[in-house]
Design goal:
It is built from 2 helices and 2 strands. By secondary structure, it is an alpha+beta fold. It has one domain. A hairpin with a 2-residue loop joins strand 1 and strand 2.
Length: about 70
């Protein structure tokens, strides 16, 4: 899928997949999140990889965050 300015420009599905059918994206999701966290660390948005990620979700209260420190 290619998006530009909040609009889908191109979609392609292989192996009889469709946009209505769920896709297994576990591995790619981990890869994308890992790359984005690395960029955020490099740009100073995240201190380092040892800081619990829940610390960056201000909408969560301490009860929802649990004991991650």
């Amino acid at each position: 899928m290619i998006c530009r300015e909040n609009s889908i420009q191109y979609e392609y599905y292989r192996n009889r997949k469709t946009k209505e059918k769920q896709h297994k994206v576990n591995s790619i999701t981990k890869s994308v999140v890992s790359a984005l966290v690395g960029i955020a660390i490099e740009q100073g948005y995240i201190e380092n990889e040892d800081i619990p990620i829940v610390n960056y979700f201000n909408d969560l209260d301490d009860m929802q965050k649990g004991d991650y420190d």
